[in-house]
Specification:
Elements (H helix, E strand, L loop, with lengths): L5 E3 L11 E11 L11 E11 L3 H12 L7 E6 L3 H7 L5 H8 L6 E4 L16 E4 L3 E5 H7 L5 E5 L1 H15 L12
Length: 186
């Protein structure tokens, strides 16, 4: 029997999960061009897919604390998750050699996720192959996240081993060290 990669997201009113894939999520950013003016304006950014990267323990403590108005997590960490096709089509230089590394999770910037079967999707539709782009992370205030969190946007959650794999790869990417020059070989 194959080990499952995904499980359906919990229903509405449940705690957000680390490794949960959401769809149609919105973020509002301040328009830098409006900074010198009288009124500030916002840019609306809609993400087809995002994945929650905040730690499960922090999400649980925040969720439980919200009931007593004692939540202490100011923001939740997300990564943008384009479909594999979108990433491949939109990335200059994404030749077959690089793409082969990406889809085997051997490229440090990207994390490939196979398609989600309909039975593992809360909406019962399934999700195409995805690629987490570790350079495209952002946070949103907890209140904004829970305001948007409906059963329509909640899709699926990575199962434990696959969640740990994603989490460890993200932390490795964020912890990499820029060297002044690469090692040379004679």
């Amino acid at each position: 029997m194959a080990v499952p990669i995904y499980q359906p997201s919990p229903g509405p009113g449940a705690c957000l999960c680390q490794g949960e894939i959401l769809t149609g999520f919105v973020r509002y950013r301040l328009d830098p061009a409006s900074l010198g003016g009288q009124e500030l304006s916002l840019i609306r950014v809609v993400y087809a897919y995002v994945v929650v990267l905040s730690q499960a323990c922090d999400l649980t403590q925040e969720f439980n604390g919200r009931k007593d108005k004692k939540g202490q997590l100011p923001d939740i960490l997300f990564c943008n998750v384009p479909t594999a096709r979108e990433l491949k089509d939109a990335t200059p230089g994404m030749n077959s050699t690089i793409w082969d590394r990406v889809k085997r999770n051997k490229d440090e910037r990207y994390h490939f996720l196979e398609k989600v079967p309909a039975e593992c999707d809360l909406r019962g539709e399934g999700i195409p192959e995805l690629t987490v782009d570790f350079k495209r992370y952002f946070t949103l205030p907890v209140e904004e996240v829970y305001y948007q969190l409906t059963s329509e946007c909640r899709r699926c959650v990575l199962c434990p081993q696959y969640l740990e794999h994603l989490s460890s790869r993200f932390s490795y990417f964020m912890g990499r060290v820029a060297l002044p020059r690469d090692h040379a070989s004679e």
